[in-house]
Automatic annotation (TrEMBL):
It comes from the Bacteria. This is GNAT family N-acetyltransferase. It comes from Microbispora cellulosiformans. Belongs to the acetyltransferase family. RimJ subfamily. Keywords: Acyltransferase, Transferase. GO terms for cellular component: cytoplasm.
Amino acid sequence: MADQTTSIRLIRVDDAEVIAAHKARDRREHAPWEPAQPDGFYTTAGQQARIEGLLDDHRRGDRWPAVITAGGEVVGQVTVSTILRGPFGKGFLGYWVATTRQGEGHATRAVAQTLTVMRRNLGLRRAEAHTRLENLASQHVLRANGFRPWGIAHAHILVDGAWRDEIFWERLLDEEPPVA
């Protein structure tokens, strides 16, 4: 049985090799959900450069990039981006899990842990996310963490060669989390 423990931690540049391996292997399976990337994105060097940019954003307070681990192994990522402080106090949540570890609850647990970081460590009061209309697995993760849909953005993202609609989701972080 696969390890059911899930943790999150700040991403490190030395995570690039394992992330590149996941991204390269899962490229076709993730294509319906993620914007196209150049071939270099799927290499260790490409991931090192991307992670360095994420960490620069983190140092400025604009982003909180983390990896999802299971039993100490990196199995995905969860990121709080577009952090807006002041009167908005919100961040945008994005996540993915390697296809070899999907269906084990890691995304649901990692999102729950990230919501705690958003509230306690980042001082945010609102989390937002988007999903494609067809991405029922991701919608399940969000619903399990107390998110509610609040609208549809038409032609919101260019994915797999076409502009796609997405559902907008919200979670007020001062609300009680759902009981698991």
